[in-house]
Amino acid sequence: MKQFFTVIGGMGTMATELYIKMINRKTPATKDQEYLDYILVNYSTIPDRSSYIMNPELNDNPMPYLIEILQQQSRLNPEFFVLTCNTAHYFFEELEAATPIPILHMPRLAVERIADFKKSGARVGIIGTEGTIKNGIYDPFIEEAGYEVVHPTQDIQDLVSELIFDKVKAANDYDTTLYFTILDRMFKELTCDVVLLGCTELSLVEDFESYQDGLVIDPQDVLADVTVNMAMALRQVAE
């Protein structure tokens, strides 16, 4: 197989499944042979990223696992890697150094999408795991683009964590009432102009029922757009 890409998924598995559905939906195919060539690695046993970031002394470090799988898959020589986990981008520099294969950077791509809708100075809210929020995985890209970063208050963050871990991950419960409450508070209480979904479990809820009362950007959806565009361009060059 030539002109393929590799998806490093399993963080979590249901969110990875959604990403695969997204790229298949977005691919302009009318027969089997027109879909994209890719390898999916559903590495679900990688230690939890947020738990390690928040308490590194008490939790297993996922970075060696991520480096190992990237180096294993690099031997197959994909055109690029896709990393379908926001929090895993905390380790991006180390992962990038571990392979000669390019890795798409989901947070950076998502922030670039904001310019399609908002001008410099917009208040950009970010919701995700505590590891993503407290370590500012999105913050430098938001600030470099000329926007203002808005983090959730602790009580909103507690609701986000409940939705991600207790509802979606633990029970496969896409609690849209809780999801809409979180977003209502981000837009109304914190006066955000746009909110980024900084966790792929939130992408699952947004895909299940979209929020209609404010501009929400789903980084996983942006990543799927870029993936399809890059893969289609590579295919055209090969032809």
Describe this structure in words.
It is a single chain. With 239 residues, this protein is of the alpha/beta class. It has helices at 13-26, 49-54, 63-74, 92-97, 106-114, 130-134, 139-144, 154-171, 176-188, 200-208, 219-238, and strands at residues 5-9, 38-42, 81-83, 123-128, 148-150, 194-198, 216-217. The protein folds into 2 domains: 5-105 and 221-238, Rossmann fold (3-Layer(aba) Sandwich), CATH 3.40.50.1860; 107-218, Rossmann fold (3-Layer(aba) Sandwich). Helix 10 links the parallel strand 6 and strand 7. Helix 1 packs across helix 11, helix 8 packs antiparallel against helix 9 and helix 8 (154-171) packs across helix 10. The two termini are 14 Å apart.
Mind telling me the CATH class of the largest domain? Alpha Beta
CATH third-level topology of the largest domain: Rossmann fold
CATH architecture of the largest domain: 3-Layer(aba) Sandwich
pLDDT < 50 stretches = none
Structural class: alpha/beta
Strand order of the largest sheet: 5-4-6-7
Tell me about the biggest sheet? 4 strands, parallel
Keywords: Isomerase
Family: Belongs to the aspartate/glutamate racemases family.
Protein name: Aspartate racemase
GO molecular function: amino-acid racemase activity
Brief rundown of the structure:
With 239 residues, this protein is α/β, with parallel strands linked by helices. It folds into two domains: 5-105 and 221-238, Rossmann fold, CATH 3.40.50.1860; 107-218, 3-Layer(aba) Sandwich (Rossmann fold). 49% of the residues lie in helices and 12% in strands.
